[in-house]
Design a protein that fits this description.
By secondary structure, the chain is of the alpha+beta class. Helices cover about 30% and strands about 20% of the residues. It has a seven-stranded mixed β-barrel, surrounded by six helices. Strand 19 and strand 20 form a beta hairpin. The longest helix has 15 residues. It is elongated. The chain starts with a strand and ends with a helix. About 10% of the residues have low confidence.
Length: about 650
């Protein structure tokens, strides 16, 4: 039978080419170049016959696994290689290490570069994909550490093993880090999600010869209005759809507070006022010793940014000190790892009552939207990602009341899929707290249709379209949390006044610093300085030389002593205090002596209350009106009126 067809196999798939016995290797290579876009110089052709075949244009590669003949001479005819119809010729090249979609994208980039700029083109979203190589990505320290770990869980010989001592079986062989769910050793943890690095390790294990590529899709398309219809084309809208999937992994497995007292102090902000509070958690990521390749977020401090607090929620205000706080945390080896907020409600008897039905609503839709925006703000670097980042390690902790009237906490993240939908504006909060709402496509912006899988009334799994709502539970990834039995906190002291609590707490001052450190000497003095809120106040208000000494004493114990720091603090704060005014001389005459008593205390108190409200972002006239309407009883009453 004469030769009429050969197949060329590459990672792009198998292509068929019509040839004859007189077709040369160069002619075949040009067919491949025209079809696949691979230059002749980058093509590496070979055959792997079961038995040796003749061919002057081939050089034998001696391998133990198989006989591979490299085709090196362009003028060699295919008939001389002894090929039969349908025989495989193998192709290797730089391009064949990419998927067909990536090849198409690369060719489109080359085509766009060769063409003149179009007059009108779709707008690029801010989350467009860049070509980022792994060497350009600087991963977090915890990720670098876990990549070097083996991850497999060793097991000892059990009573079910019947093999020789050097053998192994299903009862004693090591457990893969991605197969720990449902295994007896980890049943007590009740795992619903495996660690992220275990999930990633499985991809490498199952595809050892192929690169692992993690995509970060964009769920928003901005296009120019069509000339005839004035809106997005229907075909473009039909191509966009998302099916929600339960995320099998989580980027952080456990949240631990190194000192339970920092949570108590945070909740005290609600106890004092009855208004909800929110704070950022600062800490670091460490290996989770209870899970192979797991990550634990260790919280050492909670910073409360400026916020408007109400009985049901709180709204963040612009924080002028955000960069200063991040700089201080970084110098102490900490980073912003999450957010914590209260959702505590009391009844008329001042008893805590649940504000949600936890059988159906674990997190409210507004809380999910805030979580998604924060996770998008703090992405996790990844060498496998097409954008240089994949998911987020940013955690969320909810403080809530249970049915028994006790305070509990729970830790969560949003799935990467929902986070992207929130990031691109495709999903928003709904009126019902147990649902998220899909935005409709309009005004030249296309959002995807969202589908989710659930059980219908007959008990069968079906796919339904979010029209426009879907349950919040599809967004949630639960984390474990704990407090240490033997706390060894990073900050030895936590009693300094907390910043940004003007409603019931006087702002910290230099005098408060001196009072906080009085009657302490030696190591006790240095230990008292290891207070996050004190260090933040000193970084903001102390002179640079003094704070540099304090920072050195805190981070390098024994390097600085008390006598190097205390005189500097006393000199600075004493100089900043106003000189006391002399008391007015008494008068012997009758009449009204109110002028000798100084300013009216009531007026001073009213001015202080106005200052507290203005520091929270309210205009002075609005604050004064609210206080007047509530008879200047308290700042809390005025806040209730402003937030109502």
């Amino acid at each position: 039978m004469s030769l009429s067809l050969v197949r060329v196999s590459s990672r792009q798939g198998i292509k068929r080419y019509q040839v004859t016995a007189n077709t040369t290797l160069e002619e075949l290579a040009r067919m491949i170049e025209k079809d696949m876009g691979i230059p002749l110089k980058d093509q590496r052709l070979s055959i792997r016959p079961l038995t040796g075949r003749p061919g002057a244009g081939a050089s034998q590669s001696h391998t133990a696994a198989a006989s591979t003949i490299l085709l090196t001479q362009p003028a060699q005819r295919l008939g001389a290689l002894g090929l039969a119809n349908g025989d495989l010729i193998y192709l290797e090249s730089p391009e064949t290490s990419l998927t067909p979609e990536e090849i198409q994208e690369q060719m489109q980039v080359k085509l766009n570069a060769a063409l003149p700029a179009p007059i009108a083109s779709p707008k690029q979203t801010e989350h467009h994909h860049n070509s980022i190589t792994a060497k350009d990505v600087v991963e977090d320290e915890i990720d670098v550490f876990l990549r070097k770990q083996d991850g497999w869980v060793p097991r000892k010989r059990s009573r079910y093993c019947t093999h020789p001592q050097n053998g192994s079986c299903g009862h004693c062989m090591p457990i893969a880090p991605w197969a720990i769910a449902g295994v007896e050793e980890f049943e007590a943890l009740g795992l619903k999600h495996i660690p992220y690095h275990g999930w990633l390790r499985e991809k490498y294990y199952k595809n050892p010869n192929n690169p692992v590529i993690l995509d970060d899709p964009v769920y928003k398309v901005e296009i120019s209005a069509s000339s005839d219809k004035g809106g997005p084309s229907a075909s473009a809208s039909d191509r966009m759809s998302v099916t929600l999937e339960r995320q099998p992994y989580r980027h952080v497995d456990h949240v631990e507070f190194d000192n339970p007292a920092i949570v108590d102090r945070f909740i005290a902000g609600w106890r004092e006022t009855g208004r909800q509070r929110l704070g950022y958690m600062f800490g670091r990521y460490i290996p989770d010793v209870t899970l192979p390749l797991g990550i634990r977020a260790l919280v050492s401090a909670i910073y409360e940014p400026p916020q408007q607090s109400g009985k049901d929620n709180c709204a963040l205000l612009k924080d002028q000190d955000e960069a200063l706080v991040d700089e201080l945390a970084s110098s102490l080896g900490l980073t912003k790892i999450g957010v914590i907020w209260t959702s505590l409600i009391v009844d008329e008897q001042r008893k805590i009552v649940p504000d949600r039905d936890f059988e159906t609503v674990h997190l409210k839709s507004q809380e999910c939207i805030r979580m998604g925006r924060l996770q998008s703000k703090f992405p996790s670097p990844s060498k496998e990602s097409t954008t240089g980042s994949f998911g987020s390690k940013f955690c969320s902790v909810l403080v809530y009341g249970n049915k028994e009237g006790n305070i509990e906490i729970s830790a969560w993240q949003l799935s990467n899929q929902i986070t992207r939908l929130i990031r691109d504006g495709a999903v928003r909060d709904a009126k019902e707290p147990q649902y998220l709402k899909v935005r409709p496509s309009k005004d030249g912006i296309i959002y995807p249709d969202v589908f989710y899988r659930h059980k219908n009334e007959y008990g069968f799994f079906v796919n339904s379209k979010a029209d426009p709502n879907f349950p919040v539970e599809y967004a949630l990834v639960s984390l474990r949390h704990s407090f240490p039995k033997d706390p060894q906190p990073l900050f030895k002291s936590i009693d300094f006044p907390i910043e940004n609590r003007p409603a019931y707490q006087t702002a910290p001052t230099g005098a408060a610093v001196l009072a906080y450190l009085q009657n302490l000497h030696g190591a006790s003095f240095i230990s008292r300085l290891t207070d996050f809120h004190l260090l933040l106040f000193l970084k903001k208000h102390a002179d640079k030389q003094t704070f540099a000494l304090i920072h050195k004493g805190v981070t390098q114990p024994g390097s600085v002593i008390e006598t190097e720091i205390r005189p500097r603090l006393e000199a600075q704060w004493a100089a900043s205090q106003p000189a006391p005014k002399p008391s007015p001389a008494p008068t012997n005459g009758g009449g009204n002596n109110n002028s000798s008593k100084g300013a009216d205390p009531a007026a001073a108190r009213q001015q202080e209350m106005i200052s507290q409200l203005t520091s929270m972002g309210y205009p002075a006239d609005q604050a004064q009106q609210a206080l007047w309407a509530t008879n200047y009883v308290s700042v809390e009453n005025a806040l209730d009126l402003l937030l109502s």
